[in-house]
Amino acid sequence: MHLYNLTLQPPTAISQAIVGNFSGARQQEIIVSHGTRLELLRPDAQTGKVATVIATDVFGSIRSLAAFRLTGGTKDYAIVGSDSGRIIILDYDPKTSSFIKLHQETYGKSGARRIVPGQYLATDPKGRSVMVAAMEKAKLVYILNRDAAANLTISSPLEAHKNAAIIHHIVGLDVGFENPMFAALEVDYTESDQDSTGEAFNNAEKMLTYYELDLGLNHVVRKWSEPTDPRANLLVQVPGGQLASSDRFDGPSGVLVCCEDHIIYRHSDVPQHRVPIPRRKNPLEDPNRGLIIVAAVMHKMKGAFFFLLQSEDGDLYKVTIEHEEEEVKSLKIKYFDTVPVASSLCILKSGFLFVASEFGNHYLYQFQKLGDDDNEPEWSSTSYPSFGMSDPSSPLPQAFFRPRPLENLVVADEMESLDPIIDAKVLNLLPNSDTPQIFTACGRGARSTLRTLRHGLEVEESVSSDLPGIPNAVWTTKKTEDDPFDSYIILSFVNGTLVLSIGETIEEVQDTGFLSAAPTLAVQQIGADALLQVHPQGIRHVLADRRVNEWRVPPGKTIVSATTNKRQVVVALSSAELVYFELDLDGQLNEYQDRKAMGSTVLALSIAEVPEGRQRTPYLAVGCEDQTVRIISLDPETTLDTISLQALTAPPSSICIADMLDASINKAQPTMFVNIGLQNGVLLRTVLDPINGQLTDTRTRFLGTRPVKLVRVQIHKNPAILALSSRSWLNYTHQNLMHFTPLIYDNLDYAWSFSAELSPEGLIGIAGSVLRIFQVPKLGMKLKQDSLPLSYTPRKFITHPGNNYFYMIEGDHRVLGEEATAKKLTELRQQGKRIDEEVVNLPPETFGRPKAPAGTWGSCIRIIDPVESKTLSIIQLEENEAAFSLAIVPFAARGGELHLVVGTAADTHISPRSCSSGYLRTYKFVDDGAGLEFQHKTEVDDVPLALLGFQGRLVAGVGKALRIYDIGKKKLLRKVENKTFTTAIVSLSTQGSRIIVGDMQESVQFAVYKAPENRLLTFADDSQPRWISAMAMVDYNTIVAGDRFGNVFVNRLDPKVSDQVDDDPTGAGILHEKGMLMGAPHKTKLLAHFHVGDLITSIHKVSLVAGGREVLLYTGLHGTIGILVPFVSKEDVDFISTLEQHMRTEQSSLVGRDQLSWRGYYVPVKAIVDGDLCETYARLPGSKQQAIAGELDRTVGEVLKKLEQLRVTASGF
């Protein structure tokens, strides 16, 4: 078994974001790390929309990012700390639109280890040095400089190690142009290690240490070290240093130390300032809960600076420092606004705040004001004795604020993110869809959603209006060449033509010189200021002064097809002749003296646009009924000579020649493609050689059941092609590569580009008798997301076999449920306390729910109609119960009637796992499944983490025990159990009498139920421990599973063992076999193994394309969606794995990680090819592509075609 791994949707979680002028222009960009991927985002200061400039896989894991700029430079560089044991400096090159590795310095072993640096990065604000640190002990400092040619140089590393020190955070100090300094939060554990009583551990001090890099002596010294608050977790740089031009100081220098409940300003040898972190004035809040800062950003303006700090509730605080020169007068803090909890905050100079959310969608906010003149209370260090530091060990009095909706910020853009995907299903539920949808349960807490993902581009419709009849075509045209926007819409009907003018409104006009009594075949703005209309009886050339020149068809003939551009017109007559016209320099259309007889009825014609600075385009493509396409020359020397011919499998219905950029074929200039649509719904794309007119490199694709119509359009200032069949497709260039994606929209009968003031980049189409104007806003997103809000974190969901409803369980830890909240408020009201209704009723999706102590849960069961995308009903769980598993079971004892069984537990603690009692709740379906009727609940002794219907009964994994239950009148009745499992049963699958059990730490085990003796026996397990997170059966003997470390693997049981177990009626044979390696008597064999780099949360065996082969689709916690495609032939395996070996040597990782060791992080890669690496072949330089293709005895086109075919036939993407 060999598989090909392809990522369909790369991870969307952002672990870190940095801002800088990476392209060297005056515009700021953001680089974000998605864990295994780097992406450069460019926010548009005018529209406030964020666009992706480039995204690349790094085939390694990014642990830290930092931006820096050399003194006096205009361009920022990115420093990346990863698991490769190397420090990497990247430069973004706007010319090639790629990241370039400037430096790669090895300093340690690979892997995310405890004492190998890479976890923390800190740069000197003046760009002179960088410190890279590990979690423990090791810190290295590199000096950055320029050489004589102004290129960036990097020194050898200087050590700043401290043995037995755990590092919590590091930051570069702003000291102007003095020796660079770095501050670190460290805890020494030598004494705690030796002391067995635990006394030293409780008294361990957290030190704030300054390290100075002496540029003269070229080494690092520990300058200063003082104990600080033991709960400190984050350092923030404070501006400092003198301005070069004057003696004024930028700021006081030093750091803000963020601790639990407090913020401290700290610098060597100056008084400290401490303020409390204000907390929400919510009657439900636990007053003893500590509050910490999780993200921070500092912003410098002319002569001032401020900090935005974010607490773990999502509240932003504005912190300011009043200072005179270097002396701090006071530290002030006030509430600013509430945004989602972020993993990174970035402030842009154009007045935007980028929030890279920890979970869920990311946001770009625009500053409306800086919160200076509002009446929010402000706390200052001067209002406490000795600046709040009179007794550092005791807390300051608590400060409270009232949370409120956004006042200082406004949302400018929202970037959709699937992170985290907790469960998913792949089903085709939506009406008239020929491909399945992916339903994902995403998010955390009250911001959770159920998202429906459909493959295709999202379409924004701006106009939809009914027409008097059913047109067969639509065009738009300008009046003159230099007009910015279109002036007319022309609609062709069976017996006439309608012309509409585009102005404030769209209305019919008569005096355009167009013939309205006949249908139209083509419309073109020709020459500088004339219009052209082709109709069955002739050609009308309407000049600027409304004079009309008409060319009439010879008697007895009609025009059947036409193609035009700015200077050329070709028409085909019903007698299978071609007539060619060209515009002369006076703006007159001249007919070429000869007509070309084709010998077969012409069905389609196409010429390209006139190239820049040329008189004409040299090639014409003609499709005839004899199933051929001919390329005919329009060159003055060889006019109307046939150059080349291509045979087709069906008559052509449409042809379109377009020049489009595809970097995999030619990186320098656009390639001329001939697109041929056939009457059987197939599209052929061939490359037309511009020198000799030959057709090469044909690719085919099935679009739908109707004959294909092709239209050349403009999308985002680049040429694109709309292909219309039973679905509408768009062929476009995105990030220099060619893509082909369906539009998620009604089927269009005809379309054209449309440009007006309100939609300069729009499209116009007709669907039946409706005229629609629309645009395609985002080209990068190939999966359109529709989301439905949920109330708590989704845990699992399943589908009803009959009515397609979803049954979902949601639950949140440390959160009060609805009932508990109401109860607590009633108690407070009875005590006579004033309840601030506004604060209590703030929307939880923005502000979250009030936190509660451990062991408190809010949970519910939700019924969803995914087709209508609405919630049908919610059942809240009371008495601190939380749901963990669910199953739909057709109980044989009730005649196969379906019941929903939900596994819950009360007062659950996560670690170590415990609960006061577990329950199995049984519900009956009412209203065709739209409601649930409670039957009974059965008490069990542990948390039931997995449930499954099995042979008319319920099989349940309750803690470490596997049990089978049958339904009774008052509760479920336990029939049989097996207690030999080691940690906890987390997933179950079944076929026949076999049950596959996924254990939390001990991989996957095969169990069998022998009914005659009522035995439940384990007969096979894995030879290595695995922390199973998701599992699916590939066939009766084979399973595929994902573990918590980001691996996916396939295990198979020997068919002989399988038959032997099935043939044993009582299971006596299994009982008497001797166990192997302290486990079951048989072991499964590892067939395939691969490190995906994301924790896999669900795996499904599905077919994504109508009639396509089955693939394994997996979803990952960070929002990854990928597939594993089985190879069909041995040749494919050899070809693709050889290509992969070449790509490993050619395409070195951006972070310097070895791709083979990355994909075999925990276990060596086996029988799975990295498709993402193979697909970067398209981005290699031409010479390297040629070399690799030569080694494989193929042409470059054949290699690309094979890769495209693998992707398209398996996924349709």
Automatic annotation (TrEMBL):
InterPro entries: Beta-prop_RSE1/DDB1/CPSF1_1st, Beta-prop_RSE1/DDB1/CPSF1_2nd, Quinoprot_gluc/sorb_DH_b-prop, RSE1/DDB1/CFT1, RSE1/DDB1/CPSF1_C, WD40/YVTN_repeat-like_dom_sf, WD40_repeat_dom_sf. Gene3D superfamilies: YVTN repeat-like/Quinoprotein amine dehydrogenase. SUPFAM superfamilies: Soluble quinoprotein glucose dehydrogenase, WD40 repeat-like. The keyword Transmembrane does not apply. Associated with the spliceosome. Belongs to the RSE1 family. Residues 13-405 form the RSE1/DDB1/CPSF1 first beta-propeller domain. GO terms for cellular component: spliceosomal complex. Pfam families: Beta-prop_RSE1_1st, Beta-prop_RSE1_2nd, CPSF_A. Its main location: nucleus. Residues 859-1178 form the RSE1/DDB1/CPSF1 C-terminal domain. It comes from Galerina marginata (strain CBS 339.88). The keyword Nucleus applies. This is Pre-mRNA-splicing factor RSE1. Involved in pre-mRNA splicing and cell cycle control. Keywords: mRNA processing, mRNA splicing, Nucleus, Spliceosome. It is found in: Nucleus. GO terms for molecular function: nucleic acid binding. Residues 460-776 form the RSE1/DDB1/CPSF1 second beta-propeller domain. One of its GO terms (biological process) is mRNA processing.
